[in-house]
């Protein structure tokens, strides 16, 4: 089973990666830009595996670049308290 199959597992995975980046001193702007790039990749290259991912993909696809950056930033905020180490 892929982490993309279950939204809660996906949030835990993202939370773990976020905490690793923060512990390694990655600046918040860089984290947000990486989240934007991941969003671009997922929206264009990966089929949604659940309803939550489908909604995020649909929002991403109708958003302007500025709105996409906002979505990426909100995803980072959403997973700040997620992860297997929390």
Short description:
The protein is mostly helical. It has helices spanning 7-23, 28-45, 51-62, 65-78.
Topology (SSEs and partners):
Blueprint: H1 7-23, H2 28-45, H3 51-62, H4 65-78
Helix pairs in contact: 2-3, 2-4
Pfam family, one: DUF3243
Protein name: DUF3243 domain-containing protein
InterPro entries: DUF3243, Uncharacterised_YmfJ, YmfJ/YflH_sf
Please provide a written account of the structure:
It comes from Filobacillus milosensis. InterPro entries: DUF3243, Uncharacterised_YmfJ, YmfJ/YflH_sf. By secondary structure, the protein is an all-alpha fold. The protein has one domain (3-78): Cytochrome Bc1 Complex, Chain D, domain 2 (Orthogonal Bundle), CATH 1.10.760. 71% of the residues lie in helices and 0% in strands. The protein is built from four helices and no strands. Helix 2 crosses helix 3. The radius of gyration is 13 Å and the shape is globular.
CATH architecture: Orthogonal Bundle
Gap between N and C termini:
22 Å
Any low-confidence stretches, pLDDT <50, length ≥5? none
Percentage of β-strand residues: under 5%
CATH topology: Cytochrome Bc1 Complex, Chain D, domain 2
In round numbers, the mean pLDDT is: 88
Task: Return the structural class.
Answer: mainly alpha
Secondary structure: number of strands:
0
Element order: H for helix, E for strand: HHHH
């Amino acid at each position: 089973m892929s982490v993309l199959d279950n939204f809660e597992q996906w949030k835990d995975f993202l939370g773990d990666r976020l905490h690793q980046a923060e512990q390694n001193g990655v600046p918040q702007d860089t984290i947000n830009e990486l989240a934007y790039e991941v969003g671009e990749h997922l929206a264009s290259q990966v089929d949604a595996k659940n309803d939550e991912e489908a909604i995020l993909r649909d929002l991403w696809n109708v958003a302007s670049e500025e709105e996409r950056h906002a979505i990426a930033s909100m995803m980072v905020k959403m997973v700040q308290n997620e992860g297997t180490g929390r």
